[in-house]
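Methods, example record. To illustrate the input and output format used throughout this study, we show the complete record for Cellobiose dehydrogenase-like cytochrome domain-containing protein. The sequence lines were provided to the predictor; the line carrying structure tokens was produced by it.
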Amino acid sequence: MKISNLAGAVLVAAASVQGQYVWTEPTSNVTFKIAIPEATAAPFDLALSIIAPVATGWAGFATGGCMLRSPLLIAWKNGDGVMVSPRWASAYHPPELYNGTKAAVYSGSTANETHWVANILCTGCSSWAGFELNPAGNVTFGWGVSSHAVDTPSDPAASIRFHDVGKDHFEVDLTAARLAKADFDALLESFGDAPKPTTGMAAR
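The corresponding predicted structure is encoded as:
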């Protein structure tokens, strides 16, 4: 999705759109779009788009439903691009870089004067530390949003400040987000050029 088309996307509430599950957090107007490939069990990759108003300092997604002991993806604006940083927290302090997941950030991840969008393929987000997501059932994802800009946006390990806009969780039936392999591959192609997965990667 080109960023010029984001205005309509951010108004969408929970729904299944072309196989992606779309949920908008009403206070921040940050939208999360989720898709997975057909799978009977974890592990499987997770495709995630985060669409945020440009004033958003950072937006976070927790595959385990909460901050603690759960793979986190933290995204923020980095110039006219986006940084995505895989994180982990074992206590209530700013999460640190996490090597258990890899976030591939596609070239369609861009920013303009109104919004930024991060198109991500996460490897390692569906299974971790004895937990796993059910690809054919209800799961709980978490979110957090801050108005505070990251001090060093080009650094994937940059310190992030408190999620003062809010934090909570939302429920998703992953069957509404499952795509056949060809459709999942087409979705990734629509994200832009495919990068090599890495821990903390800037898209320009």
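Annotations derived from this record:
Confidence is low (pLDDT under 50) at residues 1-17, 200-204.
Residues 181-190 form the longest helix (10 residues).
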